[in-house]
Amino acid sequence: EHKKIIIAIDGYSSTGKSTMAKKLARQVGYRYIDSGAMYRAVALYALRHGMADTGGSVDEARLTAALPGIAIDFKVTPDGQRTMLNGEDVENEIRSMTVSQAVSPVAAVAAVRHAMTDLQQQMGREKGIVMDGRDIGTTVFPDAEMKVFVTASAETRARRRFDELKAKNMNAGYDEVLANLRERDHIDETRAESPLRKAADAFMLDNSDMTLDEQDALLLRIFNERTR
Ligand code: CDP
Ligand code: CDP
């Protein structure tokens, strides 16, 4: 019986964090938690209530006051995990370009980060989780036993996201996707509260030229080392 650990996978947008985190969780029998989905759900709430827009403005005071009324959790279904916002399945809607354009300014609001961090720490109380995001290894679980920080070139990432959206019939132009990734990366890296950065003890993974199989094998190797 291996000891249960916390696995933190952070990095830039569309590097494949959720793809690798989900796969690894399945392989080792851990729970997968998509922290980005939680910020996306808050952004959707803010958009619907006129507290944020796609131009990047956020009514911080109103959003902060509304936080106690925003319940976010995950429901496990036969076709995977679904993100729930106040009991409503918003899994598809939170992946839209509209939400992508509003999410980073919303996620920069300190009270939003504190609320999500608390929730994420509760979800990881018993360990045995793989969580992906931007600040999991630095702020949410600074003591995580396994940390990976994922990067790839902006063009590679935009191509991956563009293909993904196209496969789901959610149209967006390549240039629009690339511009959005750059914009979010910039906001995520420069915000005051838990900015996107590599934890000193995180394994740096540039997967620009890596296949999914190579990536999975590498992660399993690191996992086996950390749980030995
Ligand atoms: O999948 P993608 O890279 O497009 O983004 P995501 O993981 O769904 O996260 C969406 C946004 O939420 C990011 O651009 C960040 O602004 C924010 N986020 C965050 O601030 N902290 C996290 N731990 C996860 C996401
Ligand atoms: O979660 P994050 O935004 O970092 O990325 P994702 O939603 O997992 O999307 C990454 C996309 O790139 C997926 O369609 C993967 O199949 C693809 N991909 C990858 O994840 N890793 C590679 N080494 C190559 C491609």
Describe the structure.
Pfam families: Cytidylate_kin. It catalyses: dCMP + ATP = dCDP + ADP; CMP + ATP = CDP + ADP. GO terms for molecular function: ATP binding; CMP kinase activity; dCMP kinase activity. Keywords: ATP-binding, Cytoplasm, Kinase, Nucleotide-binding, Transferase. A hairpin with a 2-residue loop joins strand 3 (72-77) and strand 4 (80-85). By secondary structure, this protein is an alpha/beta fold. The protein has helices at residues 17-28, 35-48, 60-66, 97-107, 110-123, 136-140, 154-167, 174-190, 212-227; strands spanning 6-11, 31-34, 72-77, 80-85, 88-89, 129-133, 146-151, 203-206. It contains nine helices and eight strands. The strands form two sheets. A five-stranded parallel β-sheet has the order 2-6-1-7-8. The chain has a three-stranded antiparallel β-sheet with strand order 3-4-5, covered by helices on one side. One cytidine-5'-diphosphate (CDP) binds at residues 13-14, 35-36, 39-40, 103-104, 107, 133-136, 184, 188.
What is the end-to-end distance? 10 Å
Q: Taking all residues together, what is the mean pLDDT?
A: 96
For the biggest sheet, the summary is: 5 strands, parallel
**Low-confidence blocks of residues:** none
Number of strands: 8
Main location: cytoplasm
EC number: 2.7.4.25
GO molecular function, one term: ATP binding
Keywords: ATP-binding, Cytoplasm, Kinase, Nucleotide-binding, Transferase
